Amino acid sequence: MLLSSFCAYDIFITTDLFVPNQAELVNSKGLIKTVMTEIAKTEKEKDTVFVIKWAVFGICGNDERFSRTAYQKKLDQIEENKMNPVILDLQKSVEDLYHINNKVVITGTTGRGEFSNAYFDSNLEKYSFDHNLEKRKRVYEMQYTIKNKDKVEFVILHNLDTEILRLILTQKNGQWSAQKI
């Protein structure tokens, strides 16, 4: 009996057998291109637009998230997947560079903390910069909430603090359309 309990525990921890599947949004690259197009429309003065995909923050090693057991982490993963059955994988969906309406849109990340002091870090290294050195560059950040598999809300921030655009994107037959709200 003890052996079967150990085997069940091992299967639970080492496999995703009990973890609900998540589905990627349909045409996620098209979704992001639609968002980039809307961001490019807001920039009137510059021909180069910088967009932050996500922010990276340093976390201290004594944070409670690091002291969880494998069992607790697996339960968290199950709960997370139940709560978020549809996902947007920005690593797969966001290109490094877009050419939209005579503008170049460059994407990257930002971070704050001990190990990340770059204000804008692009995979295209020549476009990375520190905010202290390049205060005149405008940077946009996208934040999103998935409402359901066919509807996503995006909020676009300017220089990490001012909301300049709010969009609802809806999907029909694999095509995304944006509506300002």
Please tell me about this protein's structure.
The protein is α/β, with parallel strands linked by helices. 25% of the residues lie in helices and 36% in strands. The protein has helices spanning 2-14, 28-42, 70-83, 90-93, and strands at 23-24, 48-57, 86-87, 97-100, 103-112, 121-122, 139-148, 151-158, 162-172, 175-180. The strands form two sheets. Strands 2, 4, 5, 6, 7, 8, 9 and 10 form an eight-stranded mixed sheet that branches. A two-stranded parallel sheet has the order 1-3. β4 (97-100) and β5 (103-112) form a beta hairpin. The longest helix has 15 residues, at 28-42. The relative contact order is 0.20.
Q: What is the gist of this entry?
A:
By secondary structure, this protein is of the alpha/beta class.
Question: What's the helix and strand layout?
Answer:
Blueprint: H1 2-14, E1 23-24, H2 28-42, E2 48-57, H3 70-83, E3 86-87, H4 90-93, E4 97-100, E5 103-112, E6 121-122, E7 139-148, E8 151-158, E9 162-172, E10 175-180
Parallel strand pairs: 1-3, 2-5, 2-7
Antiparallel strand pairs: 4-5, 5-6, 7-8, 8-9, 9-10
